[in-house]
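Hey team,

Filing this mostly as a record. A colleague (T.K.) asked me to run one chain through the structure pipeline before their review meeting, and I want the input and output archived in the tracker in case anyone asks later how it was produced. No errors, nothing strange. Just documentation.

Input sequence:
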Amino acid sequence: MEETTQSASPRGLGGGKGKKLEVVGLAGSSAPLQRRITGISELDRVCGGGLVPGSALLVGGDPGIGKSTLLLQAMAALAAPRNGRSTATCLYISGEESLDQIRLRALRLDVAQRPVQLAAATSVRDIAASLDQRGGPDVVVVDSIQTLYLDSLDSAPGTVSQVRASAHELIRLAKERGFSLLLVGHVTKEGTIAGPRVLEHMVDTVLYFEGERGHQFRILRAVKNRFGPTDEIGVFEMTDRGLAEVPNPSALFLADRRGEVSGSAVFAGMEGTRPVLMEIQALVAPSPLGTPRRAVIGWDGNRLAMVLAVLDARCGLSIGANDIYLNVAGGLRIAEPAADLAVAAALVSGATQQPVPADTVVFGEIGLSGEVRPVAQAEARLKEAGKLGFTAAWMPRRSSQARTRAPEGAPASIREIAHLGDLLARFDMAPAGASSRRAAPR
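Output structure:
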């Protein structure tokens, strides 16, 4: 039997000859990156210093969290005349709301007089015809990408093929014409942006707008940024006049904190390049049920289980039979492992009814053997604590060099915690062996 001969070209490539790539070296001269400053410093901070011409930015968040409000405020700030001239031509395209609805929001935000251009459209062909011309807008907002459709596809708006094709066409136009494109994306019930995952790969920057409806705080978090740092956050406060910037979030998150209360510890965390102090609250209560309850808000429940297991196995403090409630006050979500020691301090304080000193901040990562490991950017955490009036810190053991050059403005009293047993000693408790576990009062 004669063997079938395979074609030398991969399937999908014709017989035509390709064009040879032009390669260059890493060293070379490039034009400095120009950015458009929006005038909203928290938004500029998250974007890496402003909007980059020709870039695409995706904003996701729960319904009603404030995505449209933030972008309308940004458009109004960009279009505001400076020195008698408008700094940028801004176009706001809505596929969900009518023009009257947007104008009503502009009146409420007191930006109705700003020269922002409005349009209501869902056809990508019509939008592309308006953008693909000389003298077009400098900044374009599309709210939202899930409402757009290409008439060359048979599927309905919001499907995978429509979202991918619509975004590709708009991003191509932004690169060619040099305008900044801001896309609003719906999110699923899991909190991720709806549609194909490739949408997040196509854009240059992905921002998530977070917040709890019961709190007035809103967190704008960068999870991807080709032109700046990731994991940077901007903090806003929702008011009746829109979103107000919060330049010092640590003071705001600790504003309602009471004095020395058991089950509370102040954690010195890092959000991107910004140090943020927040209160971690823990309640340890007797459980009337056979299976104790665990409720965690703002932290990882699996990490809580790990801290409880280490306290039990390595320190002999058995509190797992109690109901445990853990909360990060203010609606902020903590992802870094540096919060382990603050959570452990709040748990031990709640179990023993002994408060952590009110002027003390806590941070450090806990290992499975009970050791407390160093964390990054300790100096920035200490300086932020000292700036807010904290005089003591519980933190991991430092190197001898770090001890000799304590950062200026850091708390005067720094207590090093090398093991969770050292933490229990702060509460006048000697760690028991793993074989003779001590249960917390029930």
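Quick notes for T.K.: Residues 1-9 have pLDDT under 50 and may be disordered. The chain is about 25% helix and 25% strand.
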